[in-house]
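Students often ask why we bother encoding 3D structure as a string. The short answer is that it lets us treat folding as translation between two languages. Here is a chain of 87 residues written in the first language.
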Amino acid sequence: MKLHLVRLAKKQGEARFPGLEGFRAYLLIQAEQVSEARLYVLLEGEVVIDLPDQSYLHLRKGEAAYLEQPHLISPIDPSVIAVWKPK
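And here it is in the second language, the structure alphabet:
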């Protein structure tokens, strides 16, 4: 199965793979507070992730991050991000 994640996320707001729990690509247009572990892969745009220790990560297209602690993810501009929530 082939899916164009960026195109689908922009058009529908999100894209999911059937049968793959915990994975989605979606259009991030406003900040989100996250309390669970997540793996991010930025497909388009730029985001800043604020961490509890007052540090941050700045992700650009093609970059990824795995975070286990709570965080705040904010788009610099509308961004498409793939997210996997490990169990």
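Translate back mentally: The longest strand covers residues 38-44. Keep this in mind for the problem set.
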